[in-house]
Write a structure and sequence with these properties.
By secondary structure, the chain is an all-alpha fold. Helices cover 67% and strands 0% of the residues. It has a domain of 93 residues.
Amino acid sequence: MKPKIPKYKRVVWKYEDGDYDKMRTILSQTDCIDRHSLEKIYLSFIRPLLEYSSIVWDNCTAGDKQRLENIQIEAARIVTGATKLCKLENLYRDTGWDSLQTRRDQQKLIMLYKMIHGLVPSYLTNILPARVGDTIKLPIA
């Protein structure tokens, strides 16, 4: 029986095995497509694949996280026309994008908020430990 490969690994390997070149080919049509459209293509078709269920697999290795981030960085370079010599801070500032790690952190915080406030199914709220204020009554002096 073949071992099951996590979804994020399949996305990384898929891009590393050739679809990454297809993405570059599509996004590199800068003479035919304006910057706004290139950005929409990335945000609509590519980034959702990189973020699919990311709050579940965010405990993957640093190398896997960096591989995913490199895909976004390459897309940002293509969209902006920047070179590899461009600093990442400038690239992210120019596009207005957050790093994938920042986006994963934000999504985890949003999910935690929803879990605390009962905005998700009970099987998710039940995995939260009891809060200290709910179990211990402290006298107010």
